[in-house]
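Hi support team,

I've been running sequence recovery on a batch of backbones for a student project. Most finish fine, but this one hangs at about 90% for roughly twenty minutes before it completes. I'm not sure whether the input is malformed or the queue is just slow. I've pasted the structure tokens below so you can try to reproduce it. Let me know if you need the job ID as well.

Thanks,
M.K.
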């Protein structure tokens, strides 16, 4: 049950008993910060949706239980089922955007298609969209995209780190020349997001690249992997999602391709992606912007303040999993945006426009990460008008058959390449939409 629903029920019960007056009940309802939850508990991507949004809600509930909310303001939310479909996400956006005393704080769809579909609506309504580790990479440019925040790291930056990882394993970036890399990708906006970037990297480093789209949901891949076998690649980049991932790992094993030469996007690097593949997944490598595990103070605070009280939004055994921890990071970054905005606008319920300012002024340095129990759980992050990503670095993890192990330090992206592409793409978007970019030198 959402905290919002619980609060409303409590207030109704008190009113019926005559224990307090109506004005006090209204006052209590008004001291809330509403965050929509456009979740997907159904469909082929439900494993990701339930764990990510579960961790997200658990973190917010922990703040309510431990701290009384943020700055004395209770955080509330309401779920709306999207089934990972863009049209249903739009319906959820319209249904939830005016909830709460000040409307929706921000939307987190965890869905690239939904983010694309609602960007213009959100801009008109002055409600920010948070796309942590997914969505349009050019929305890093806040001068053109003031209401979209691809926090932590974008697909483009992550893609350059994957090629860097392969280069490190080959003995240097110069050793990539002449290598063959197969790009197995989900045939969707999400899956196609890095095609142009990969082609630019192929030109820069001299490797041969071929793209292999896989139709949703990804259960039929035999013909694709027969083509991969004919190509005889040195490496495979897996840009999958949901059931596509274990299917790909099984098909790779069937044609004899080694799992330790497959590098996945972070949406291919959860327990739900590898456990169903069994032995075929052992050795598989995936990018990540956070580790798994529950040995972090922030996760222990959730156990103590939420699960020890019989609450919680996922099965307790999923705490510490990759998807769950990603959801906690969603909670942290949404909350830190509110903290930043409250410092400027006051400790009260904030509008979407005020939260947008907060998202543009997050400063998660080492000191703050330690304060919230997330040191080594999340990399340092600092956003601005010009930079809506705020980070960019990636770590790589490898599946040993039972757990994920971190196998690299933080790998910095090829900023020279990605920044140029972001500027080119955002400038073109501004031209097409007749947008006058903000002067970020005047923002503060």
């Amino acid at each position: 049950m959402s905290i919002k629903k619980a609060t409303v029920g409590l207030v109704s019960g008190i009113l019926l008993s005559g224990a307090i007056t109506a004005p006090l009940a209204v006052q209590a309802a008004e001291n809330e910060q509403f965050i929509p939850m456009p979740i997907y508990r159904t469909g082929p991507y439900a494993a990701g949706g339930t764990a990510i949004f579960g961790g997200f809600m658990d973190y917010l509930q922990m703040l309510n239980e431990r701290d009384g909310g943020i700055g004395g303001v209770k955080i509330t939310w309401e779920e709306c089922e999207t089934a990972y479909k863009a049209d249903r996400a739009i319906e959820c956006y319209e249904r939830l955007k005016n909830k709460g005393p000040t409307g929706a704080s921000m939307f987190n769809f965890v869905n690239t298609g939904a983010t694309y579909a609602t960007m213009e609506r959100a801009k008109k309504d002055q409600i920010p969209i948070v796309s942590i580790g997914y969505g349009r990479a050019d929305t890093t440019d806040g001068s053109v995209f003031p209401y979209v925040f691809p926090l932590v790291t974008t697909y483009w930056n992550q893609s350059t780190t994957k090629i860097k990882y392969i280069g490190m394993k080959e003995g240097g970036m110069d050793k990539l020349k002449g290598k063959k890399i197969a790009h197995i990708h989900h045939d969707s906006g999400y899956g196609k997001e890095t095609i142009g970037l990969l082609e630019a990297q192929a030109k820069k480093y001299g490797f041969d690249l071929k793209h292999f789209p896989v139709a949703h949901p990804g259960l039929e891949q035999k013909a694709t992997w027969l083509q991969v076998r004919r190509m005889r690649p040195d490496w495979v980049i897996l840009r999958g999602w949901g059931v596509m991932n274990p299917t790909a790992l099984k098909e790779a094993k069937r044609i004899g391709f080694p799992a330790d030469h497959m590098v996945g996007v972070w949406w291919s690097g959860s327990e739900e992606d590898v456990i169903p593949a069994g032995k075929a997944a052992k050795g598989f490598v995936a990018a990540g912007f956070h580790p798994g595990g529950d040995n972090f103070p922030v996760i222990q605070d959730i156990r103590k303040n939420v699960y020890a009280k019989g609450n919680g939004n996922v099965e307790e055994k999923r705490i510490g999993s990759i998807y769950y921890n990603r959801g906690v990071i969603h909670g942290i970054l949404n909350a830190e945006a509110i903290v930043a905005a409250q410092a400027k606008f006051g400790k009260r319920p904030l509008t979407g426009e005020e939260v947008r300012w907060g998202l543009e002024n997050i400063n998660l340095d080492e000191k703050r990460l330690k304060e919230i129990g997330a040191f080594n759980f999340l990399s340092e992050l600092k956003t601005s008008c010009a930079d809506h990503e705020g980070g960019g670095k990636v770590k790589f993890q490898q599946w040993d058959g039972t757990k994920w192990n971190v196998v690299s330090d933080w790998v910095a992206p090829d900023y020279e390449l990605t920044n140029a592409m972001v500027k080119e793409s955002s400038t073109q978007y501004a031209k097409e939409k007749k947008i006058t970019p903000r002067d970020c030198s005047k923002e503060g």
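--
Follow-up from support: It reproduced on our side and the slowdown came from queue contention, not your input. Residues 1-28 have pLDDT under 50 and may be disordered. No action needed from you.
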